[in-house]
GntR family transcriptional regulator (Mangrovihabitans endophyticus), 868 residues
Amino acid sequence: MSGTTQDDYTDRYARRVRGMTTSEIRALFSVANRPEVVSLAGGSPYIAALPLDAVGEMLGRLAAEQGTSTLQYGIGQGTAALREHICDVMSMSGIDGASPDDVVVTVGGQQALDLIARVFLDPGDVVLAEGPTYVGALGVFQAAQAQVAHVAMDSDGLIPAALAETLDAVARSGRRAKFLYTIPTYQNPAGVTLTDARREEVLDICAAHGLLVVEDDPYGMLSFEGGAPRPLRARRRDGVFYVSTFSKTFAPGLRVGWVLAPHAVREKLVMASEASILCPSAFAQSAVTQYLATMPWREQIKVYRETYRERREALLSALADLMPEGTTWTRPEGGLFVWATLPDGLDSKAMMPRAIAARVAYVPGTGFYADGSGTAHMRLNFSFSAPERLREGVRRLSGVMEQELSMRAVFGSAGRTHHRRGAAAADAPGPDVA
Amino acid sequence: MSGTTQDDYTDRYARRVRGMTTSEIRALFSVANRPEVVSLAGGSPYIAALPLDAVGEMLGRLAAEQGTSTLQYGIGQGTAALREHICDVMSMSGIDGASPDDVVVTVGGQQALDLIARVFLDPGDVVLAEGPTYVGALGVFQAAQAQVAHVAMDSDGLIPAALAETLDAVARSGRRAKFLYTIPTYQNPAGVTLTDARREEVLDICAAHGLLVVEDDPYGMLSFEGGAPRPLRARRRDGVFYVSTFSKTFAPGLRVGWVLAPHAVREKLVMASEASILCPSAFAQSAVTQYLATMPWREQIKVYRETYRERREALLSALADLMPEGTTWTRPEGGLFVWATLPDGLDSKAMMPRAIAARVAYVPGTGFYADGSGTAHMRLNFSFSAPERLREGVRRLSGVMEQELSMRAVFGSAGRTHHRRGAAAADAPGPDVA
């Protein structure tokens, strides 16, 4: 029995946790995982596409034959063997000549972001980030007591002129911008990709302002229409941190990601990681190393690509066929997500309980902004569910929206929910839906 | 090629990383892992004692048969199944009636400490801790920009009067003490255990001062002479955080630990964990759950106990037979470590390079203090090496010490190395030797 429900600890908390409150949306999401609900909310890869028997056999051997090392402590930076493979993986994306010595293995891409934040962010520092951006990154920046300045995107990704303007505004306000956090390829949640020309512009603007760049690239290999543009880190080395993960190309349940850092910073990241988790799992690292060394992982990525392309088509067709007039959405060329904009007057957050009641779930747009905006948007995932289920989800969702629209036509609208600045982090869904 | 060696990022770092420098001792430890070196430095369990074939078979099945969940994302708090098992494990130690809802699964005990620090520590806050204490905890508190006030121990563990005095001194200085961090049972590195009577006293003092208690109990099950005293958390629930891990009872390579927290705080810890790592590994959690559910884990702990008891005897006999006069050491009733005090005039940190040259490694005492003290001490591990190898290590070590003593007799001593406050964290060894 855990008895006490009153929070007797409030006056002892660190400043960074004040304002952290449990979200109603989180509570809704626990319902969203029920089998009768079609969830368009998750960010989960379709693990059933993996050759699970072969993976099982591989993992079993790693413990039986190499258990005295794979089940033991390891070093904070991660194993040399995995870091070498990671450099090979990055070279496939166009990042040539990276040194394994400059790679730090992390607990998924999330920990890489956290380590960078710990090494660079003091309370009050500013991080620039696309608006909308990854929920988990907002959580990191909030925990670091940093302020997020969103930079607008269009269908070509981050708008360079908006970046320059935002940087100027931050400088005028006397605050210090430490880095740009960006997901240039198949962005989460927007589903858009920064064009080649803009990549150069963005790098030039950051270099001119002495701004570091944190490039988060979990989806780059999941392209549906030819390859992705070369990463920022492939174009410029100085001042660029490259973060990625095996969660989308192999399996998220092992929690293995990495950061390629400028050499001078790598040791700080390792020390920050040791203070946080001592060392990444030796077993998980061996599993990924063995997977890359002995299994047809490039072919597996093709399987993921084909599967997700088909599902994207299914989602886009369903949206075109079923969504109420006035709804718009992005058309991603890779990745896992479509970003939808609702007809005027609809509020994705307010609508959420009714969607759950109609057995469909999505992530309201507010989760992806630090400033409470985003009520007009929602993120829809297409990687996890089969095509017919995606269509059924859109059917249910459009039903809810039609109902909202008719109610609005009858009773008028009180306008979209007003959100105070800082309220957004509490709306962030849990990791099962990130 | 990683090119740049100059640190161009210095003026961008957060305040918490200033003063973090790479340690010479860390560099030495990379040498200490060579096979010709007898390492008394590590903190590694003797994994070869596990039934690795059976563990391998179990892990293989988890991926092959349940891969769509074990290789997928999970929730931030950890699986309900594992949290229930953890409550069973804790009840074996005397902690009855804990709710799985109040348990947060973490990446080893280290992440549990980090989460508690994130939730409670602002820069300048004070943490009380035994002197000496766990290296990794000092790393956490330094990263949180907290100050550590050490409390003296004797062979009965933490001295209650010293705790009260330290609390008064902190209060007089106008700083705020947030919690006592303590390893009451088979302490790392000191190898001593807080007596029953003192446990009550310590709890009373903390309660009277409104001080939270963070009880770190990784070794409690590794008792050599009857059971361990009941944990602090078994005696008092309010204000006590109980941290433990499967690293010493199963395998550290999976990185699975936990914290049992007061109910009101649990959600903050979960949110802090999500911001740091999104969620703990579903695969590692399933592995531990399955291990606890289907394998003879209580018998395995007995195997560890027997093995370590025999090795402790070997180490203690070797010390008695071979150490130079004036050396003293603790006699642990469980756990992994002996804490040795050198004859007057010897400096464990200064002696380290010569010890490595003589093919023996230990952890100098300075790593276990936040204030640079500890040069007169060293930590010796007895869990990892076989008895005859432990004896050989002590033989080499005593040879180095004898040599140091005769040099001192001939040339006199410049006294022990002086260490400035704050220098200690840089001496901390990497996780492979923690």
In short: The radius of gyration of chain B is 22 Å. The CA atoms of residues 43 and 434 of chain B lie 5 Å apart. DSSP finds 14 helices and 14 strands in chain B. Chain B touches chain A through 101 residues (CB under 8 Å).
